[in-house]
Amino acid sequence: MVGAEHCHDLGREHRRWAAADAEQQPRLRKVVETTAIRAGIPMPRVGVTDDPAPNAFAASLSPKNAVIGVTTGALDLLGAGGEL
User: pTM score > 0.85 for this model?
Assistant: First the structure.
């Protein structure tokens, strides 16, 4: 849990990490949810960082406390090409 909490804290404190709910980021949440279901793992916490640089990370010591972070830059690139 330390790894996931550390990444969550880093994102929140340094880059204005905000949890992405289904209303704000429906496509991102659906992709993550579908992937988690297919992998047979719990839905991870998903957050978005307001940063134009395309980037993402996933961190966890176990599936039950996983965190996925995505920048707005990555969402813009993926959304423009229809990948997300």
Answer: no
Task: Map out the domains of the chain with their CATH numbers.
Answer: 2-80 (3.30.2010)
What is the total residue count of the chain? 84
Of the candidates 6, 7, 58, which has an alpha carbon nearest to the alpha carbon of residue 32? Answer: 58
What does the pLDDT look like over 14-27, one tens digit per residue?
457 788 878 888 98
Indicate the DSSP class of residue 43.
P
The DSSP result for 13-60, as a single string, is HHH--EE--TTT-HHHHHHHHHHHHHHT-PPPEEEEE--SS--EEEE-
